[in-house]
Amino acid sequence: MTKNNSATTEYITAKDLAEQTKTILEAVDFLFQKNQKNTKESFNSINTRIDKLETELKSDIDDLKTELKSDINNVQTLIDNYVKAQEDFKQDFVIMKEEMKQMKQIFKEKFGVEIRAF
């Protein structure tokens, strides 16, 4: 560097530019690495939350499936019992109808009374 009497003049050399460039690049690289680390931590945190929610959701869905299967089995049992009761009623009705025919026949033969519906 050269100094004048009235003013100070400084010359920037290629070495000075290289040092400044290196310093700036190191600072920018440091900031990028710090930002990259923060970004990775944020994504890892988000992924962890998503995994936890996914696990909870799967558990909830499995619980709902189990409950639904139980409800379906209960409804199926109720329907089976209802159908059986209806079939039993139908059989009883057929038997009662046949017995009524026989009773009408006996009343007609024994007592001479004919029973008819209006």
Largest sheet: 2 strands, antiparallel
Q: Domain count, please report it.
A: 1
Widest beta sheet: strand line-up: 1-2
Low-pLDDT segments: none
* Alpha carbon gyration radius: 49 Å
Order of helices and strands: EEH
Structural class comes to: mainly alpha
Mean pLDDT: 91
Helix content: over 70%
Number of helices: 1
Proportion of beta-strand residues? under 5%
Gap from first CA to last CA: 135 Å
Q: Give the number of DSSP strands.
A: 2
| Net shape | rod-shaped
What are the defining features of this structure?
single chain; 118 residues; mainly alpha; two-stranded antiparallel ribbon; 1 helix; rod-shaped
Q: What does the secondary structure layout of this molecule look like, with pairings?
A:
Layout (H helix, E strand, L loop, with lengths): L1 E2 L4 E2 L4 H98 L7
Antiparallel strand pairs: 1-2
Q: Brief overview, please?
A:
The chain is mainly α and 118 residues long. It has one helix at 14-111, and strands spanning 2-3, 8-9.
Characterization of the model:
The protein is mainly α. The chain has one domain (13-111). Helix content is 83%, strand content 3%. A two-stranded antiparallel ribbon has the order 1-2.
